[in-house]
Amino acid sequence: MAPNPAHTALWPAPHASGAVDATVHVPGSKSVTNRALVLAALASEPGWLRRPLRSRDTLLMAQALRAMGVGIEEGVGPDGTGEFWRVIPAVLHGPATVDVGNAGTVMRFLPPVATLADGPVHFDGDPRSHERPLHAVIDALRALGARIDDDGRGRLPMTVHGGGALDGGTVEIDASASSQFVSALLLSGPRFNQGVEVRHVGPSLPSLPHIRMTVDMLRAAGVQVVTPESGGEPHVWRVTPGALLGRDLTIEPDLSNAQPFLAAALVTGGRVVIPDWPAHTTQPGDRLREIFTEMGGSCELTEQGLVFTGSGEIHGIDVDLSDVGELTPGIAAVAALADSPSTLRGVAHLRLHETDRLAALTKEINELGGDVTETADGLRIRPRRLHGGIFHTYEDHRMATAGAVIGLAVEGVQIENVATTAKTMPEFPELWTGMLEA
Ligand SMILES: O=C(O)C1=C[C@@H](OP(=O)(O)O)[C@@H](O)[C@H](O)C1
Ligand SMILES: C=C(OP(=O)(O)O)C(=O)O
């Protein structure tokens, strides 16, 4: 097959001629938008998502829910309230086909929803989706009463033969490969006849803030959830069966997608303001305030938003990123430009993300002259003088934004397939050049 020309196109990453000074309006959170869509689709009354993220991952989620019968109307609200989606729940049905693309949230969150549909729901996606683990969700759903045909490896493609309802109950899973396995079962749990109790039995559990996000959003929809933090047993989450309320929810900006812009302030010794940064959030990107401060910046939450200022110095860091793994590519990019070495730990599961991110970051930074080594659970980065060259992105949006950060400081970096940022931030190239021209 001929390569897709968009995938081999090269984008000259802009080099910063001085300190950036810009306000960047970051689009809505992928993780919040896709949870909100699922919860609204399962609710007993219509709901609203305001300022939803419109990107490949969220449009695939909306398209899949529509295929199972859910109504999703799009519109623009009055003055300044931005776009909205009105979600009208329906009795879910097959036959339906779900294209998951390479969206972990779609491939993990929707099979439990499909068990509630009446009829077969077929799941498939990008070649990489065939490699990303799904076995824990498939095995759990089978244990809870579902009928699923897969290829025997516990991966896509597969068909969920929805029976219109699922027994539910207690299930043990190993979620060490992805927190999304837990979130997936909890999100549909209130609609299972007996609810669900998920008992994680694996050696580690990444991305805990994302599980808290799931729990918070379930509670906001009126669902009772017992968690390890709220009097439950360690590593056990219990969701009581019951109706979900329709909500009117304004989606927060995606703080993980704010990362490259904050990094730009750090790398150029400039200043970037991100409006609407939430004062309280479960988004892992909020940890950037602390991590990028340790790496040399400073920040303040003001009425204008988060004001992040670089000092002109960039320091290395030794940090456990297991809670916030999706921040790793952007932190690695900054670390490669720092004045001292860094060790990024706790992120072995990144080998199962959009691409093997540990291998990809090591190879691409080293090809620009860097000195990165993979460890069992992360990266060791010793800064060196970098030079220009092609930064390959492996259809990973966060590789593309990480390459752009390096390009600010290193002349002649070309990003392959910058369009891959459409997974979560289609407007990235325009926002990036806009930031530099401000
Ligand atoms: O639930 C979510 O919205 C996510 C959970 C995390 O997945 P893993 O636990 O697989 O890292 C994160 O990396 C991903 O970007 C989004
Ligand atoms: C890991 C990520 O995505 P996904 O939701 O596809 O797992 C990510 O966005 O960094």
From TrEMBL:
Phosphoenolpyruvate binds at K30, G104, R132, Q180, R357, R398, K423. GO terms for molecular function: 3-phosphoshikimate 1-carboxyvinyltransferase activity. Its EC number is 2.5.1.19. It catalyses: 3-phosphoshikimate + phosphoenolpyruvate = 5-O-(1-carboxyvinyl)-3-phosphoshikimate + phosphate. The active site is at E326 (proton acceptor). Its main location: cytoplasm. Keywords: Amino-acid biosynthesis, Aromatic amino acid biosynthesis, Cytoplasm, Transferase. It is found in: Cytoplasm. GO terms for cellular component: cytoplasm. Residues 17-430 form the Enolpyruvate transferase domain. It is an enzyme of class 2 (transferase). It comes from the Bacteria. GO terms for biological process: amino acid biosynthetic process; aromatic amino acid family biosynthetic process; chorismate biosynthetic process. Pathway: Metabolic intermediate biosynthesis; chorismate biosynthesis; chorismate from D-erythrose 4-phosphate and phosphoenolpyruvate: step 6/7. 3-phosphoshikimate binds at K30, S31, R35, S178, S179, Q180, S207, E326, H353. Catalyzes the transfer of the enolpyruvyl moiety of phosphoenolpyruvate (PEP) to the 5-hydroxyl of shikimate-3-phosphate (S3P) to produce enolpyruvyl shikimate-3-phosphate and inorganic phosphate. Monomer. NCBIfam families: aroA. Belongs to the EPSP synthase family. This is 3-phosphoshikimate 1-carboxyvinyltransferase. The lineage of its organism: Bacteria, Bacillati, Actinomycetota, Actinomycetes, Kitasatosporales.
